[in-house]
Write a structure and sequence with these properties.
With about 80 residues, the protein is an alpha+beta fold. The chain is built from two helices and two strands. A hairpin with a 5-residue loop joins β1 and β2.
Length: about 80
């Protein structure tokens, strides 16, 4: 999937951004770049369900890998 950043500039000058095609914390550098380009800072943010699911999956994969390494070390 293509990585995209949808940006909305509201009439009050505030900026809303939404990432697409990114998983986990992969989106964070894009938001940092947007802040630098617009000389702004994040006031409010939230993560999508996909972010949370990806983070849980990555943590589970890391745990499984650590367990396997521990078993291999004992073997």
């Amino acid at each position: 999937m293509t990585k995209r950043l949808t940006i909305r500039i509201r009439s009050d000058g505030s900026i809303e951004a939404e990432t697409h095609g990114m998983t986990g914390s992969e989106c964070l550098p894009y938001i940092d770049t947007l802040e630098r380009l617009t000389d702004s800072e994040t006031v409010d943010s939230w993560f999508t369900a996909e972010f949370a699911e990806t983070e849980r999956h990555q943590a589970a994969t890391l745990r499984d890998s650590s367990r396997q390494q521990s078993l291999d070390d004992r073997g």
